[in-house]
Amino acid sequence: MERLYYIGLDIHKKTISYCVKQVDGKVIQEGKVAADRKTLFRWMAGLPGPWLGAMEATLFTGWVYDFLKPHAVDLKVAHPEMLKAITAAKKKNDRGDAEKIADLLRVNLLPECHMLSEEMRELRRILRYRNMVVRTGVKMKNKMSGLLMEVGAIYEKRKLHHRKYFNNLLERVEDVPDSVKNMLKLSRSSLEMFEAVQKKLVRTLREDPLIHERVKRLMSIKGEPLPIVKTENMLV
Q1: Quick one: which H or E segment has residue 70?
Q2: 5-106 falls under which CATH superfamily?
Q3: Alpha-carbon span 8 to 83, nearest angstrom
Q4: CA triplet 179, 183, 185: central angle to 5 degrees?
Q5: Over the stretch 78-89, which tens digit does the pLDDT of each residue have?
Q6: Single pTM value for the model
Q7: Residue 44 CA to chain centroid, in angstroms?
Q8: Which secondary structure element, helix H or strand E, spans residue 107, and what is its range?
Protein backbone atom coordinates (compact mmCIF):
# COMPACT_ATOMS: atom_id res chain seq x y z
CA MET A 1 0.00 0.00 0.00
CA GLU A 2 1.41 3.38 -1.02
CA ARG A 3 2.25 5.75 1.84
CA LEU A 4 -0.06 8.72 2.30
CA TYR A 5 1.24 12.16 3.26
CA TYR A 6 -0.55 14.92 5.18
CA ILE A 7 -0.05 18.55 4.18
CA GLY A 8 -0.98 21.67 6.11
CA LEU A 9 -1.18 24.91 4.13
CA ASP A 10 -1.15 28.43 5.59
CA ILE A 11 -2.34 30.71 2.79
CA HIS A 12 -1.61 34.41 2.43
CA LYS A 13 -1.93 36.91 -0.38
CA LYS A 14 1.58 36.43 -1.81
CA THR A 15 2.92 33.29 -0.14
CA ILE A 16 1.81 29.86 1.06
CA SER A 17 3.59 28.09 3.91
CA TYR A 18 3.40 24.31 3.89
CA CYS A 19 4.27 21.36 6.09
CA VAL A 20 4.32 17.77 4.80
CA LYS A 21 4.10 14.99 7.40
CA GLN A 22 3.82 11.24 7.59
CA VAL A 23 1.00 9.69 9.59
CA ASP A 24 3.40 9.20 12.55
CA GLY A 25 4.10 12.96 12.66
CA LYS A 26 7.54 12.95 11.04
CA VAL A 27 8.16 16.11 9.03
CA ILE A 28 9.12 15.30 5.43
CA GLN A 29 9.10 18.79 3.92
CA GLU A 30 8.31 22.31 5.06
CA GLY A 31 8.80 25.75 3.64
CA LYS A 32 7.18 28.58 1.76
CA VAL A 33 6.25 29.08 -1.90
CA ALA A 34 4.88 31.96 -3.93
CA ALA A 35 1.09 32.04 -4.19
CA ASP A 36 0.73 31.57 -7.94
CA ARG A 37 -0.38 28.64 -10.07
CA LYS A 38 2.93 27.95 -11.85
CA THR A 39 4.86 27.79 -8.58
CA LEU A 40 2.24 25.57 -6.96
CA PHE A 41 2.33 23.19 -9.91
CA ARG A 42 6.12 22.86 -9.63
CA TRP A 43 5.79 22.38 -5.88
CA MET A 44 3.28 19.55 -6.31
CA ALA A 45 5.63 17.83 -8.74
CA GLY A 46 8.19 17.55 -5.92
CA LEU A 47 5.88 15.97 -3.36
CA PRO A 48 6.96 12.48 -2.20
CA GLY A 49 3.66 10.71 -2.93
CA PRO A 50 -0.16 10.85 -2.75
CA TRP A 51 -1.38 13.38 -0.24
CA LEU A 52 -4.23 14.74 1.85
CA GLY A 53 -4.27 18.50 2.32
CA ALA A 54 -5.94 21.07 4.53
CA MET A 55 -6.04 24.85 4.73
CA GLU A 56 -7.81 27.53 6.73
CA ALA A 57 -10.76 29.33 5.14
CA THR A 58 -9.61 32.82 4.10
CA LEU A 59 -10.21 35.31 1.30
CA PHE A 60 -7.53 33.56 -0.76
CA THR A 61 -8.61 29.96 -0.15
CA GLY A 62 -11.02 29.58 -3.09
CA TRP A 63 -8.65 29.65 -6.05
CA VAL A 64 -5.97 27.63 -4.22
CA TYR A 65 -8.56 24.98 -3.33
CA ASP A 66 -9.84 24.77 -6.92
CA PHE A 67 -6.31 24.49 -8.29
CA LEU A 68 -5.02 21.84 -5.85
CA LYS A 69 -8.17 19.73 -5.44
CA PRO A 70 -7.76 17.62 -8.63
CA HIS A 71 -4.21 16.66 -7.57
CA ALA A 72 -5.00 15.58 -3.98
CA VAL A 73 -6.51 12.39 -2.59
CA ASP A 74 -8.67 14.79 -0.61
CA LEU A 75 -8.52 18.46 0.29
CA LYS A 76 -10.22 19.97 3.33
CA VAL A 77 -10.93 23.50 4.54
CA ALA A 78 -10.77 24.33 8.25
CA HIS A 79 -13.25 26.60 10.04
CA PRO A 80 -11.18 29.69 11.02
CA GLU A 81 -12.89 30.43 14.35
CA MET A 82 -12.82 26.80 15.53
CA LEU A 83 -9.23 26.47 14.38
CA LYS A 84 -8.34 29.63 16.30
CA ALA A 85 -9.92 28.20 19.45
CA ILE A 86 -7.89 24.99 19.15
CA THR A 87 -4.55 26.71 18.54
CA ALA A 88 -5.06 29.89 20.63
CA ALA A 89 -2.45 28.96 23.22
CA LYS A 90 0.28 28.41 20.65
CA LYS A 91 2.77 31.00 19.44
CA LYS A 92 1.69 32.13 15.97
CA ASN A 93 3.92 31.97 12.91
CA ASP A 94 3.21 30.92 9.33
CA ARG A 95 5.31 27.75 9.34
CA GLY A 96 3.98 26.74 12.74
CA ASP A 97 0.40 27.27 11.59
CA ALA A 98 0.96 25.01 8.58
CA GLU A 99 2.33 22.30 10.90
CA LYS A 100 -0.65 22.61 13.27
CA ILE A 101 -3.05 22.19 10.36
CA ALA A 102 -1.10 19.14 9.18
CA ASP A 103 -1.22 17.65 12.68
CA LEU A 104 -4.96 18.21 13.05
CA LEU A 105 -5.48 16.64 9.63
CA ARG A 106 -3.43 13.50 10.28
CA VAL A 107 -5.11 12.79 13.67
CA ASN A 108 -8.56 13.49 12.18
CA LEU A 109 -9.30 16.46 14.47
CA LEU A 110 -9.48 19.19 11.83
CA PRO A 111 -12.54 21.46 12.44
CA GLU A 112 -13.74 21.18 8.88
CA CYS A 113 -16.18 23.60 7.23
CA HIS A 114 -18.22 23.10 4.08
CA MET A 115 -16.64 24.32 0.87
CA LEU A 116 -19.16 25.41 -1.72
CA SER A 117 -18.75 24.25 -5.29
CA GLU A 118 -16.94 26.53 -7.71
CA GLU A 119 -20.25 27.23 -9.49
CA MET A 120 -21.98 28.28 -6.26
CA ARG A 121 -19.07 30.49 -5.22
CA GLU A 122 -19.13 32.18 -8.63
CA LEU A 123 -22.85 32.79 -8.27
CA ARG A 124 -22.39 34.20 -4.77
CA ARG A 125 -19.63 36.48 -6.07
CA ILE A 126 -21.99 37.88 -8.71
CA LEU A 127 -24.78 38.40 -6.17
CA ARG A 128 -22.48 40.20 -3.77
CA TYR A 129 -21.16 42.41 -6.54
CA ARG A 130 -24.71 43.24 -7.61
CA ASN A 131 -25.59 44.22 -4.04
CA MET A 132 -22.56 46.51 -3.95
CA VAL A 133 -23.58 48.13 -7.26
CA VAL A 134 -27.16 48.67 -6.02
CA ARG A 135 -25.96 50.25 -2.76
CA THR A 136 -23.51 52.50 -4.62
CA GLY A 137 -26.25 53.57 -7.05
CA VAL A 138 -28.53 54.55 -4.16
CA LYS A 139 -25.72 56.56 -2.57
CA MET A 140 -25.13 58.35 -5.88
CA LYS A 141 -28.83 59.26 -6.18
CA ASN A 142 -28.83 60.61 -2.63
CA LYS A 143 -25.68 62.61 -3.35
CA MET A 144 -27.26 64.22 -6.41
CA SER A 145 -30.29 65.26 -4.34
CA GLY A 146 -27.99 66.56 -1.62
CA LEU A 147 -26.00 68.71 -4.05
CA LEU A 148 -29.17 70.35 -5.37
CA MET A 149 -30.51 70.97 -1.86
CA GLU A 150 -27.21 72.50 -0.74
CA VAL A 151 -27.51 75.25 -3.37
CA GLY A 152 -31.27 75.74 -2.99
CA ALA A 153 -32.23 74.37 -6.41
CA ILE A 154 -35.87 73.43 -6.95
CA TYR A 155 -36.47 70.02 -8.55
CA GLU A 156 -38.93 67.15 -8.65
CA LYS A 157 -37.40 64.22 -6.79
CA ARG A 158 -39.55 61.67 -8.64
CA LYS A 159 -38.18 62.80 -12.02
CA LEU A 160 -34.63 63.72 -11.06
CA HIS A 161 -33.05 60.52 -12.35
CA HIS A 162 -34.80 60.54 -15.72
CA ARG A 163 -32.24 61.58 -18.32
CA LYS A 164 -34.40 64.11 -20.18
CA TYR A 165 -35.60 65.83 -17.00
CA PHE A 166 -32.06 65.92 -15.58
CA ASN A 167 -30.60 67.51 -18.71
CA ASN A 168 -33.38 70.12 -18.81
CA LEU A 169 -32.88 70.83 -15.12
CA LEU A 170 -29.19 71.63 -15.60
CA GLU A 171 -30.04 74.05 -18.43
CA ARG A 172 -32.73 76.02 -16.61
CA VAL A 173 -31.57 75.94 -12.98
CA GLU A 174 -30.26 79.31 -11.77
CA ASP A 175 -27.65 80.42 -9.26
CA VAL A 176 -25.96 77.02 -9.19
CA PRO A 177 -22.13 77.07 -9.19
CA ASP A 178 -20.45 75.44 -12.15
CA SER A 179 -18.63 73.09 -9.75
CA VAL A 180 -21.99 71.69 -8.60
CA LYS A 181 -23.18 71.26 -12.19
CA ASN A 182 -19.97 69.40 -13.01
CA MET A 183 -20.38 67.13 -10.00
CA LEU A 184 -24.01 66.47 -10.96
CA LYS A 185 -22.96 65.51 -14.50
CA LEU A 186 -20.27 63.21 -13.15
CA SER A 187 -22.73 61.65 -10.72
CA ARG A 188 -25.23 61.13 -13.54
CA SER A 189 -22.61 59.40 -15.70
CA SER A 190 -21.63 57.15 -12.80
CA LEU A 191 -25.28 56.34 -12.10
CA GLU A 192 -25.87 55.33 -15.73
CA MET A 193 -22.82 53.07 -15.56
CA PHE A 194 -24.09 51.44 -12.34
CA GLU A 195 -27.52 50.90 -13.87
CA ALA A 196 -25.98 49.30 -16.98
CA VAL A 197 -23.89 46.95 -14.83
CA GLN A 198 -26.94 46.17 -12.70
CA LYS A 199 -29.00 45.18 -15.76
CA LYS A 200 -26.21 42.97 -17.07
CA LEU A 201 -25.80 41.23 -13.70
CA VAL A 202 -29.55 40.65 -13.35
CA ARG A 203 -29.66 39.17 -16.85
CA THR A 204 -26.79 36.85 -15.94
CA LEU A 205 -28.54 35.76 -12.74
CA ARG A 206 -31.85 35.14 -14.49
CA GLU A 207 -30.15 32.87 -17.02
CA ASP A 208 -28.22 30.94 -14.37
CA PRO A 209 -29.41 27.29 -14.25
CA LEU A 210 -28.72 26.97 -10.52
CA ILE A 211 -31.00 29.89 -9.68
CA HIS A 212 -33.60 28.72 -12.20
CA GLU A 213 -33.72 25.28 -10.57
CA ARG A 214 -33.90 26.71 -7.06
CA VAL A 215 -36.71 29.10 -7.96
CA LYS A 216 -38.58 26.21 -9.61
CA ARG A 217 -38.34 24.17 -6.40
CA LEU A 218 -39.41 27.10 -4.24
CA MET A 219 -42.46 27.68 -6.43
CA SER A 220 -43.46 24.04 -5.94
CA ILE A 221 -44.08 24.70 -2.21
CA LYS A 222 -47.78 25.11 -1.59
CA GLY A 223 -48.67 28.04 0.62
CA GLU A 224 -51.77 29.27 2.35
CA PRO A 225 -53.54 32.27 0.77
CA LEU A 226 -53.08 35.58 2.56
CA PRO A 227 -56.06 36.51 4.74
CA ILE A 228 -58.23 39.48 3.80
CA VAL A 229 -57.97 42.10 6.55
CA LYS A 230 -60.86 44.54 6.76
CA THR A 231 -60.24 48.14 7.79
CA GLU A 232 -62.51 51.13 7.90
CA ASN A 233 -61.60 52.50 4.47
CA MET A 234 -59.93 49.72 2.53
CA LEU A 235 -59.35 46.03 2.05
CA VAL A 236 -55.80 44.70 2.33
Answers
A1: none
A2: ATPase, nucleotide binding domain (3.30.420.40)
A3: 13
A4: 115
A5: 998 888 766 665
A6: 0.70
A7: 27
A8: none
